[in-house]
Records
---
Amino acid sequence: MSEFRMDALLPAEMATRAEYLGVRKAEMPAFTMFMLALLAGAFISLGSIFATTVAAGGMSITAADGVVAYTTGLPYGVTRLLSGLVFSLGLILVVVGGAELFTGNTLIVMAWSSGKVTGRALLRNWAIVYTGNFIAAIATAGLMFFSRQYTFGSNSVGIAALKIAVGKSDFGFLQAVALGILANALVCLAIWLTYSARTTLDKIASIIFPITAFVAAGFEHSIANMYFIPYALLVKGFDPEFMATVSDKVPNLEVLTWKAFFFKNLIPVTIGNIIGGAVLVAAIYWVVFLREKKV
């Protein structure tokens, strides 16, 4: 009779679990994988919506003689901390609710390194999941645009959304790669920690601090950016009346374009995310805990 243990799994056991889950993910039927990827794209977008709204709370709005003035209500670091904390909702929904997230699935490299998943199956998973995440994030951005939630808080939510997107659209290529590496190292560490969990509360606690850290530090997550930037682009491109009201509150708005979204953010950040998750987390833990089994 096996011994029952309430303690969290130890790292070596976590590695075995990561390998097992990698095989399951890679062997999942394509339709199921795609549907779960749609959910993950929507879940991460919900975390992004929450973070954008809280970031707007960093502005205080005062009116005098009919003139609206925007001033910073919280220090930069505090606003980033709060935004990161609430953004954790996205990965909590993915892990606890069950969904397929491209950035987290870079951990399948552990099963691939052990020879339990083929390179073709790994790339199939990444391609299907990335596509599903992208479609759902864009669809969520469209739904949010039609909700006009960006006009809430005397337009402060929309201003925050535009500022976030502008900041993400003006990176150099290497900078975006580096920010992507750092982001997904933390995302995959959050997922890695959930492999030790025995309860739902364990999983939630494992997620909060790494995800809060990556958002607070300003690192870049490709799936979140599939929502953040297209949402702002929709507002910029299809609500000229709103833009006429707020454009002077958003510096460098001209850098926010679809071309910048793909070439200055999404592509380099995706490359960085793959390196951060597959190399800095999956490969290192495989070498430490699973390499001897393979040899």
---
Amino acid sequence: MSTHKHYTGLIDRYKDRLPVSASTRIISLNEGNTPLIQLQNIPRLLGKDVNIYVKFEGLNPTGSFKDRGMTMAVTKAVEEGSQAIICASTGNTSASAAAYAARAGIKAFVLIPDGKIALGKLAQTLMYNATIIQINGNFDQGMELVKEVAEHAPVTIVNSINPYRIDGQKTAAFEIVDDLGFAPDYHCLPVGNAGNITAYWKGYTEYARDRVCGNRPIMCGYQAAGAAPFVAGHKIDNPETIATAIRIGNPQSWDYAWAAQQESGGWFDKFTDAEILAAQKLLSQQEGIFCEPASATSLAGAMRDIASGKIPEGSTIVCTLTGMGLKDPDTAISQCAAAHPVTIEANLDAVKRAILDTL
């Protein structure tokens, strides 16, 4: 009989590092344990001696890293007797909150910006049966409304201002160290609301404190040019980018993200939508890994900084890919020439010609 321990999810795996007890009812969809994939072809294209890994969080149950925080936030909400949760969202948080609320048997309310949510994320939120409230405004306005309404209604906020969200998300740093056997030299990630950079830094810091790893990585946060408050040094009133997951001008984890950057000796940078989409396409076509646009910002940043020498040769780099590509099918299809394939006759000669013409 196998003695292998079967973990049902990240709370079960890391319960000694999370605020749960033996009597806590864990709300889980077997999230976490996502693959750390070493890139093979892109480093060769760069012509640099570096080890680049991607932490593919798109393989969580609802297709994004949000599930890590949501399993904790909903578990604690249920433990505290809450019957409903609420969040503002650019898409991924709403999908995750709705799924975990369904699992827990409680109600989910989500505020989303009208017309500014990727189709895949909207489809998920609808199917999980959340109550969707579309507002004529952006994420930042939605976030302020959520904070206000929570003072007047019996709902638990599950955005990353909920500290249990950060606790859940820090487990991604644990997994990276557990997989590699050490902490990377650099950790690159997209920054929107900044809960993720906050959580990773917390995770690495806890592991270093307990001597699970000897060092902490330099944290590199990358934003879209039209939504880059950390690069600007102040909030952005009307953020715009095709990378909807990071279309945020007033990050809720502002102070924590600055602390992660400064304590680690890292930096923030920004990329145009064209640069973000080019990185998304390159990752898909060179490595077979399909992430959503915002995720590719981390790879765009790593590639630029490796090429410039800011990240030196010999480094081990981890890039967080926050969500899977099917979250935003419209954006993917719109940038592919083969999205409208030519139709040919159904005979052998025509098929042979179509193949040979492209070889």
